């Protein structure tokens, strides 16, 4: 009778337990090959620039939304404080919804 499967102990005994890292083989080098560094760097830089730009766009959207809501809140407070009649109140709110708000950079000029 022929055994098709050898015992696990016998199979494990043939696996080398110690790797010779002093070998001159490029498989056991501690530094990555130069070609791999050249190939991997441009995609990493491209990914970083795209991620950075997307983050900047999202941050700009959040700051724009915050400025819009604070400006509308000031208009509503003005209307309430001076007891502006309803038709004029609606026109003021529509006006401030349509005009672009100044950027924070231009406010410092």
Word description of this protein:
- This protein has 109 residues and is an all-alpha fold.
- The chain has 4 helices and no strands.
- It has helices spanning 8-13, 34-82, 86-98, 104-107.
- α2 packs antiparallel against α3.
- The protein starts with 7 loop residues before the first helix and ends with a helix.
- The model has no long low-confidence stretch (mean pLDDT 77).
Task: Write a short abstract of this structure.
With 109 residues, the chain is mostly helical. It has four helices and no strands.
Give me the count of strands.
0
- The value of Rg in angstroms is 34 Å
Note the main sheet.
none
Q: Alpha-carbon distance between the termini?
A: 95 Å
Helix content: 55-70%
Derived structural class:
mainly alpha
Strand content: under 5%
Could you report the average pLDDT, rounded to the nearest whole number?
Answer: 77
Shape: rod-shaped
What is the overall number of helices?
4
Low-confidence stretches: none
SSE string, helices as H and strands as E: HHHH
């Amino acid at each position: 009778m022929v055994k098709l499967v050898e015992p696990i102990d016998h199979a494990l005994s043939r696996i080398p337990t110690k790797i010779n890292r002093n070998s001159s083989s490029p498989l056991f080098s501690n530094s990555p090959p130069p070609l791999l560094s050249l190939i991997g760097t441009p995609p990493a830089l491209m990914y970083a620039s795209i991620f950075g730009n997307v983050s900047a766009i999202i941050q700009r959207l959040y700051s724009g939304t915050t400025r819009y809501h604070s400006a509308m809140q000031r208009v509503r407070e003005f209307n309430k404080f001076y007891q502006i009649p309803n038709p004029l109140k609606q026109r003021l709110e529509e006006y401030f919804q349509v005009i672009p708000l100044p950027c924070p950079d231009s406010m410092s000029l």
